[in-house]
């Protein structure tokens, strides 16, 4: 998979992608991530990419010209399965959506800023708008990092135990059940006996029941 990220702060993005599992995915050649500084596509000598909104009001808007120039330059080099815009009013990021995106070959992600982007960019270039929650960030870089992390970890070969990703919360519509590790007893707090029984059928049933109950308590909307 190749991911091109359009941002005002490429160095901020590089810090995230140079660590942990995402970095290992890049080192293995499973994912190729590139950062594009939108200031380089500015039409002014000061590198400006924003302007005042028509109609007045507070805040600035990312201008159509530098964004269009950058997107068209990249589209001239390859085809993209999706051009994503990180927008507070976009489709909510979910596990099924991450599963879908993990099967793509080329993705482009535009990090929003200020009051957003000129609406013509959304109308003529963006194919998908994604939100990571009902709140507003100072910039789309954090949202882009969340999207990439959630998607990249699902690609075969990224995580050592690929079955682990398939057992994550939300993969089956439920949150994950409780997990325990050694020692079997700590300060009088014991691991449930069923997990020590070696009875795989009983363990699977216990985990399902625990996941169902935890979902009822913490994410009832998933069951509804």
Key structural traits:
224 residues; 9 helices; five-stranded parallel β-sheet; 36% helix; Alpha/beta knot; Trp Operon Repressor, Chain A; two-stranded antiparallel sheet; alpha/beta
Please sum up the structure shown.
By secondary structure, this protein is an alpha/beta fold.
Description:
This protein is of the alpha/beta class. It folds into 2 domains: 2-152, SPOUT methyltransferase, trefoil knot domain (Alpha/beta knot), CATH 3.40.1280; 169-223, Orthogonal Bundle (Trp Operon Repressor, Chain A), CATH 1.10.1270. Helices cover 36% and strands 18% of the residues. It contains 9 helices and 9 strands. The protein has helices spanning 10-17, 20-27, 64-75, 95-101, 119-124, 141-152, 162-166, 200-218, 220-223, and strands spanning 2-7, 32-37, 50-51, 61-62, 82-92, 106-110, 128-131, 185-186, 189-190. A 5-stranded parallel beta sheet has the order 2-1-6-5-7. Strands 3-4 form a two-stranded antiparallel sheet. It has a two-stranded antiparallel sheet with strand order 8-9. Helix 4 links the parallel strand 5 and strand 6.
